[in-house]
Queue: 3 jobs
Job 1
Amino acid sequence: MIREVYPQIYLNEVPLPKNPLKALNSYIILSEDRPLIFDTGFNKEECKKALMEGIAASGIDLKRTDLVLTHMHIDHSGLADYLWKQGCKVYIGKKDGTLLNNFRTSPELVLNHLSEGLNLKQGIGIKEIEAFDIAPKEPFEYTPLQEGDCLEVGPYQFEVIDIPGHSPGHIGLYERKHKLFFGGDHILNEITPNITFWHYKIDSLGNFIESLNKIRQFDIDWVFPAHRSLIRNHRQRIDELIAHHQERLEEITGILCDGKKTVMETAARMRWDLNYKSWNDFPLTQKWFASGEAMAHLEHLVYKGEAQRVSFDGKHNYELVNP
């Protein structure tokens, strides 16, 4: 069931079956002109049922409703094509719109490219691709958003803010007068956003920290995140997130002290809050996620000049510049 969390703003909780995130916070902002929905959940029947029940309870007409995807991840975009076919106008950040289309059409190319870069011994197979088969199934039209664009919804005037890091084209919407921020996965309570490797030309972690510091300067009373509880003190939570990643960097620096490591060798020695006895017990998909996060931190050390990427036995290795 949906519940009002701020005047004319409703939280529509969408379950994410068999996923540690548990649920997505989709939001509905009512307006006599064009209501607005934030994010959708996976392209799964359980998600669609919950999403549409909340939409029906809100009484909005999808033929005159806007949908904003805060970023391209499939727990946020999986039902975008369905809502588009129901009449919604879809918005997403320009970079993530392109990434989402590429992933939707050729997931195996994206996953195999990353698995090669992460030095995973096994490639991504059909079972792993099927695990991601909850993305939009059909092409849909969208309007790209970038910083400086504005969306007016009822009594609220939202400014689009670029906040790359969790994804290259992640966006947030800021309402200056009421001090509200819809941040997708940028700032989360209870859990930390996953920061992963995207490309050697992108410092994902550096971008994320820069985006956190950017939002830290904003005057915000309410953060409406895509997972877990609402946030009232965004600066305190931002400081905690930055401290978490600093600890990760120190952990990885310690791992590299006894010599060069591949991404997977680094990930295997990192601490993970998962219920597995050893790295060998991790499912391949989980190794992919863990290695992606390790690589984002390793590449950040490269960007800072504290580590370097070297070739050894045909694989990328990382070593400290001044061990």
Note: The chain has a mean pLDDT of 91.
Job 2
Amino acid sequence: MSYEAETIANVFLRFAREDGRGVSHMKIQKLLYFAQGHAMSLLDAELISDNCQAWDYGPVYPNVYRHLKKYGASAVRSEIVDEADAERFDPAQATAVKPFLRVVWNKYGELDALRLSELSHVTKGPWARTRRANNANYRAVIEKTLIQEYFNGLSSRVE
């Protein structure tokens, strides 16, 4: 089962609150990207139904961007909500994948946004390949097959 990016972002926001850590909008974007990649590789399942795009500063889930851009580089202070449907992005929807997401959080949550950005910008990675193939088109979609292929090839898995 796949989830909207905002739902998975809210799971990470709860982990950050539980662990007493601040988390920026940029860091949430990178955590989503790594969670999607590792889920596709290790679970052979699409975790996030939304498409990720290759923006100038890395992989971005546009819907999450729209909700969190107001925070700029500051720590995100509250979960994403949909005014019309209060339960739409409820992290409880993702209970089945919460243990997996906790592993991703434990691996990447201590890294700062800039380090996560470096990891997402590797030359042979999906973001860089998409940018090259699309002449740095600002909103080019990073194909999910490309994400899965890349994460399948990583030697260090999330464990």
Note: The chain has a mean pLDDT of 93.
Job 3
Amino acid sequence: MMALKVRIEGLRELEKALGELPKATGKNVLRRVLKKRAEPIAINMASLAPVRTGALGRSVDHGPIGRLSRRQKAMHRKWGSSTAVEWFIGAGTNPQSVTQEFGTFKEPAQPFARPAWDAGKMQMLGGIKDDLWMEIQKSAQRLARKRARAGGAG
């Protein structure tokens, strides 16, 4: 198995720029970028899912931790940062997703999640930085316009 190394430069500057926005705005920026970048992987994952009844492909989704089952939430550890945003891609609460992905002693594996991730991970990771800069700039401009309106009204 070959280890994957990804190097994304400019994250310190991004973190500083995000820190200059209000906390809620910064989290919304991160959510918008993650949603945009996760969508192609989720679509590919759904298309690669084995089709018997179609339930597995329909269960593939992406989103924040709120979409996980109670058990998945309990098993998941949150990061220490209050400004961290997490995004999940997968078959959610569908129990057949694990047996399809990894197989059983009776049935061979029919992976769909890992191939979708492998096909889209570099595009996703590479585009996050550019998308974040664009979203930070848009949010900063909206914030400046809002403050200018509030200052002009007072």
Note: Residues 79 and 118 are 24 Å apart (CA to CA).
